[in-house]
Amino acid sequence: xxxxxxxxxxxxxxxxxxxxxxxxxxxxxxxxxxxxxxxxxxxxxxxxxxxxxxxxxxxxxxxxxxxxxxxxxxxxxxxxxxxxxxxxxxxxxxxxxxxxxxxxxxxxxxxxxxxxxxxxxxxxxxxxxxxxx
Length: 133
Fold this sequence. Notes:
By secondary structure, the protein is α+β, with helices and mostly antiparallel strands. It is built from 2 helices and 8 strands. The chain has one domain (6-127): Roll (Transcriptional Co-activator pc4, Chain A), CATH 2.30.31. The mean pLDDT is 90.
């Protein structure tokens, strides 16, 4: 049985996560004609549900940028909120933490009212990780 994908879309930008095997997720970002996919280690750090939880808890606003990155640094999330309450979630993919290679970034606009549902979706996706036998 395959695990469901986690998909986030805003306009031309999208992020799709799919479990490959225990502890590893395929993450694809798209923006217009740009498309990039990286394998992300999600064993200890998950895929960012903790960051989304913090954002939901502070939906009225926070100072600065909230950040999360995967254990190996191949995926990073950065969230900021303007004075009007609009949230920008930047998703960065890196070919590798240890060598030069490609890097891509997409920005997804969010509203505070979306955060609880988004947190549930991230948490459910993390919980759907395949387990070793």
